[in-house]
Amino acid sequence: MGDNVAYEICPPSAAFFGFIGVSSALVFANIGAAYGTAKSGVGIASMGVMNPQLVMRNIIPVVMAGVLGIYGLIVAVIIQGSIDPPQNGVSVYSLYTGFAHLAAGLCCGLSGMAAGMAIGIVGDAGVRAVGQQEKLFVGMILILIFAEALGLYGLIVALILSQNSFSCEVNQ
């Protein structure tokens, strides 16, 4: 491969996209987790005033929202471990790999953020409803599971995307 072609395929700036993928996975997933935790927590606090014996039972939306942050952490660590540093002053990390890692980070992060928003809204309304009518608990849990699945889908696709790579050869 000629030097000019190698530089175009594996420029020193290619790692930037990989690191943006790392930060996107963690930041967006944690935004979703924080929103879901806060919104559900407000519902639990409101419901707990009228029905305090149900507070521990209705903590499930908060736990489910917290798992979304773990999804982002997993993808961020996997991508970060795949970013190759330059060897002998030459980048071996390709644009293809950088874009794949960016896509993986965005996939996990944005899916986690959407799932966190869904969990927060359902968790808030759900725990308030369960505080008034305990028979609604199973229905709330089912809806929360489907909301959590959105984040899990993003995690699975991000793991698949993070395995895409193209390595540039370093001439010794």
TrEMBL record:
Transmembrane segments: 15-38, 59-79, 99-124, 136-161
Localization annotation: Vacuole membrane
Bilayer topology term: Multi-pass membrane protein
Major localization class: membrane
UniProt keyword list: Hydrogen ion transport, Ion transport, Membrane, Transmembrane, Transmembrane helix, Transport, Vacuole
Molecular function GO labels: proton-transporting ATPase activity, rotational mechanism
Cross-referenced InterPro entries: ATPase_proteolipid_c-like_dom, ATPase_proteolipid_csu, ATPase_proteolipid_su_C_euk, F/V-ATP_Csub_sf
Entry GO terms, CC: proton-transporting V-type ATPase, V0 domain; vacuolar membrane
Domain of life assignment: Eukaryota
Protein family: Belongs to the V-ATPase proteolipid subunit family.
NCBIfam families (UniProt xref): V_ATP_synt_C
Protein name, entry field: V-type proton ATPase proteolipid subunit
